Structure formats: structure tokens, C-alpha cells
């Protein structure tokens, strides 16, 4: 009888998992490599939750030679006893019930429930097999499998091979071990990317103070362990490596308000832009949201109050602006809360309105506590001095802008000469090619379809904007031209709605100079038009490196491997041309290889890990030669300058 009811329970549960397999996109967003990693993160999240709740302090993530992945923690172990309602073990519930992300009782798990909250059952549903071990005095074991049901011709997903069993094998270990084989019929690829996983594990280690995360890639025999006893303070220090900091130790605050746990670390550098990165329940919020807004207003308010209390700001003086206090600020804002709501273009913006006053309250209160600390007073004075300097530049820049506005007509005429605008008025369809060099620019102008393609040739190198003040940047002609062509404005005034071209395509030569120009432009977009990149409007054009021809046949190759293939295809008696630059191509070649939407190959620039990208930009574009050399040495290939932006083919 007991066996029967177990089976009945089973059927209901299995329907749930089969639905996941029918529409994986609905549960994990995509079946690309991103989706593949997602099912690993579901398991890692459970282990991190266990650590965040104080029951575990070590997690091991292993990529096995057979293509499977495993995660182990030293926590309490997933409950092995019978779940009263489901009539099966806790382990079985966790791996077969959809939305078991809600855990047994939410009292214990006050902050859990990751981004999608779909939980470990989705990993099971999308795996060929999955094996769990729970260590609690003895080893408990359970296995699941997906298989083709011959009678219906359909795949059954994540079916238990047997109920949870106590193997009676004694163990001193505590915790949970989960190993799974992603299903190759579900995902575009089932090969995990070690670099992506390492980046995220490192971030998780920063966000969870003291948690030791070990990564082992059996495929390459590579091992790395992360553990940061300083947590987000270490994170800020890491981000500021290679920058000159204005005071020794980052400021750190942590407090809870209205059930929202707020943790913030800040440190100023002599840079001119801010690098504020925020997280909710360990999930990066690249588009910011309510918590960031609360932090910003709290910071501005408490620092203005401090400046007044010290009489640095007199009664007649205006308040300093948030922008002034944030100049050169590096900060991590990490909050934990329940019922998280994400919004925005990429669903990485925190929508919960209650987060705003909570974070503002904690920021103001806790910074006030620090201001009273005798050893910290100097730090606050330094921040105020820096903000006052920033406000002076801001006022000067405003003047400069007013003058510029007065001579706008002249500027506009200059611009017209350079920019070959397109005639179409639909921004969604329009493309702007930013082209290296006048001769390539000329070819591009001849080749383009003027209805939707605009060409902006760059004469010299644009200014490397890293470490430059805004007013200096605005004096650079190339940069100014780009800004007016795009129509969005920059920095805090950036407005995506006014964007005139939905594809902004950087077209530079495939050599070191070209790579440098590309890096400078990407840095500019990243620092001053981040939303442009976030919303996926920035692309890199890919000119071919070779042309193989014989008679009427012309074949282009974009790298050495492709070249081999193309030579084979064209056959004996071919002639080979190597393009040193875009300028060597005539208009029709440029059109066919790089500009024609039907035949070209574009890469879309996306930022998956903004904090890491920021650090990389500092290293590559900043003025600390030592760090840069070290990085380039470690990544011998110079083309890695593009690494700060994850680039995907389009
Ligand atoms: C390698 C993956 O899943 N660890 C893990 C998961 C759980 C617990 C402990 C746990 C939670 C609770 C009580 C609770 C989970 N339990 C559940 C559920 N590592 C990994 N470690 N006891 C143990 O939430 O109260 C879901 S996850 F729902 F069964 F409680």
C-alpha cells in the first residue's frame, strides 16, 4: 500500500519535470551555454544558501572528465526524512518537485530563493542522469535518470531509479553531494566553460565572507580555491588594484532594516568615474534599481550633512551633488531580501520599492556611526575634499558646455562633413559604422546602403578616456563627434530613447592598432554610455583576413583555420591576398565582407560581469604600467584587450 501511494505521488511529480524538458527556455531562459551553466548554478545556489545560513563553510565544484559536474558542501545535508505531504523523502521532493526553491519552511531560509527560484529539480529535469549523496553519520544515496519511453515515444525526465536509500556506510563527513550529466539533446553544448565558472565562483566567495570555494577542473587538472575573510571589503580592494586609493581601508557597513540585510563597502580612488556594483541575494544587478538608488541618496545626504557639520560647506553654499561624492568611488552594495522582483531590459534591475528606504536608512545611520569614530574622521574629510574638487570641475565643465552650445552651429557643420548620415528615420533599423581611417571610411561611404547605414570615419586615435576628466574628454574631437552622432548624451544625462542608431558597429583593422582603437572605444562606451552596451547596441565588425580567389571565385577567410578550409575548397592554382587593413579593400569587397547584413559577420558586445570588466579596463587602459604588463604577460595574446567585453557572434 505504501508503495502504491509512493507511485501515485510520483506520476504527478514527473509531469512537472517533463514540462521543463518540453520548454526548457521557460525555466532557464536559454539552452545555450548560458543555460548549461544555469543548471549548475541552481545546485551551487543551494550550497551557497546553506553556507549563508551559517551551516556550511566549504563548497567544492568539480568538472569531471566524463562531462558531468558535481557540487559538494559540508552543511546539514538535504533532509532525508519523509516529507509529510508528499509522502516521499525530502531529497526526492527537492529534485522532483518544481518550485521546490521555496524550501520546506521559509522561516529558516529567510533570504534564499535565487533569481529564478526554480531549484534543483530543473537541473534534474535537464540532465541525462543525476546522483545525490547526503552525509549524515551514514551515506544516503539517490539516483535519477531521463529515458525514452518506448510506449509513448516521449522522454521521461528525472525519474527516480529508487527511493532515497541509507547505504549504511559510515561517514564522518556532513553535507550534500550532487553530480549530474547535462543532457546533450537539450543543450546546444554540454561543455562547461571553466573561465565563466571561475569568475562567478570568485564573485560568490567575495559576497560570502569566509566561505571557501574550491574549483577543480579534472579535464585540464586545474585547481583553484577562493576564500575571502574580508568579504566585500576584499572585493573592493580587488577592484581597486592598479588604481591609487585615497585612503587605506575601505569603509564597511552592515545592518538590517525591515528584514532587508544591507552590506556595503566603499573606497575612493583618484579616478574620475564611479564603479558601483550591486547585488541582491548574491545575484548581480547590472541595471541597478531601488537598492542602488537608496544607497546613492543615503551617501549624498550623509556626506553633505558631514560637510556642513565640519563647516566645510557654509550656510550660503549649495549642497554638493551625488555625482561629486561618487567621483572615483568604488563600491559594492550587497543586500539580502525576500520576494525579489527584477525589472529592466535584461531583468537585472531591482524593482522592490521597499529596498530603497531600507538601504538609504542603513547607509545614513551606519556611516554616521563611522563618522564618529576618531580614526575614520580623516577618511570622511578626504572624501569631502575630493567631492569639492569634483564640483569645481563640474561647474567649469558646465561653463565650457554653455560656450560650446553658443557655437553649436559651427560644430554641427563640422560634423556634417565627417558623418555620412543615413536617410532613413527609423532608429531601430539604422546602423552607424565607426570606421578606422579615412580611406576605409571613403570605401564604406561608397559601399553603404544610405537608407539605413551611416558612416563615421575616425581620423586619428580617439582619446583614451580612462583617467581623463570629463571636460578633457569633451575636448576630444573624435569623441565629441561620436557623442553628437549617437544623440543620446553621456554619463548621468545619457538617454537611450534618443539613440539614433540601434546598431553601433566598430570597424577597425585586424592589427594591434585596430585592437587599441577598439579597446579605447569600448572603454568610452563602458564608462560613459554603459546602457548602450547593456542594451546590446554595440557591435564589432569583422573584416576578413584573407581572400582566396581563382577565376570568378572569391572566398574570404576570417582566421587561419578558415583559410585552410577555403584553400581546399577553391583548389589548386588559387591566389591568396592577405588584408593588412580595411583600407586595402575596395568598396564592393568591403560591402560584401563586412557591411552587407546578409553576408557579414558581426559580434555583439555584451557585459556579463560588469565588475570584472571594470577591473580589466583599469588594468589595460589605466596608467599603472606594472599591472598592465603583468596582465598582458599572463594573457600573452594581445587581442585579449577585447576580453573585458564578452563577445558573442551574431
Ligand atoms: C550540493 C548542493 O543542496 N545543500 C543543502 C540543501 C538543503 C539543505 C542543506 C537544508 C535545508 C533546510 C534544512 C531548510 C536544502 N533543503 C531543501 C529542503 N547542496 C545542497 N544543504 N535542512 C537542510 O531549508 O530548512 C532544499 S535545499 F527543501 F528540503 F529543505
Task: Sum up the structure in keywords.
single chain, about 650 residues, alpha+beta, seven-stranded mixed beta sheet, six-stranded mixed beta sheet, about 40% helix, disordered N terminus, disordered C terminus, binds ligand 1YM
Describe the model.
The chain has 21 helices and 23 strands. It has a seven-stranded mixed sheet with strand order 4-3-5-2-1-6-7, with helices on both faces. A six-stranded mixed sheet has the order 16-15-17-18-22-23, sandwiched between helices. The longest helix is centred in the middle third of the chain and has 30 residues, at 377-406. The protein is α+β, with helices and mostly antiparallel strands. Helix 8 (290-309) runs parallel beside helix 10 (355-371) and helix 13 crosses helix 19 (587-595). A hairpin with a 5-residue loop joins strand 13 and strand 14. Residues 43, 46-47, 50, 71-73, 75-79, 90, 94, 100, 103-104, 108-109, 176, 178 line the site of ligand 1YM.
Number of strands: 23
Radius of gyration, CA atoms, in whole angstroms: 28 Å
Q: Uncertain spans, ≥5 residues at pLDDT below 50?
A: 1-14, 100-117, 406-411, 636-650
**Strand line-up of the largest beta sheet:** 4-3-5-2-1-6-7
How much of the sequence is in beta strands?
A: 15-25%
Listed once per kind, the bound small molecules are: ligand 1YM
Mean pLDDT: 87
Oligomeric state of the chains in view: single chain
Shape: flat
Distance between the termini: 57 Å
